[in-house]
Amino acid sequence: MPYNLRNRFVIATSTRALFDLSRENEIFEKQGLEAYEDWQIKHEDTPWSPGVAFPLIRTMLALNDYLPENRGVEVIVVSRNSPAIALRFGSSLKKYGLPISRYVFTSGECVAKYLDELQVNLFLSANVVDVKNAHQSGV
Question: Which of the listed CATH numbers 3.40.50.261, 3.30.930.10, 3.40.50.1000, 1.10.150.130 matches domain 9-19+49-85+96-136?
């Protein structure tokens, strides 16, 4: 049976919006995917710093503390990143105590096609193309 998100406000965010990946993104743009993934793996025990969407995500998730039996807010990370960053992503979630257990890593594919199936109400991303595609798909 699928996980029911019908009565929840679902926020999807990219890893670059949730965490500050500016240095890593520069490596990706200048040196390519392999150098980017190598960097992430070498630094997998170093959590990322909070990104621009972090305060909003943390605040929205805190709303669930008031109704623990009926989590009203669900955050799903939907990212163009590859699963190679999963350990660093996990250590970052753990460091900041973010109760996010759902995530999709598309390995470079457009994320907009996943948003409808995930019943997303709000999409936050540092990628302008993904934001435009999400808007065109009705999010």
Answer: 3.40.50.1000
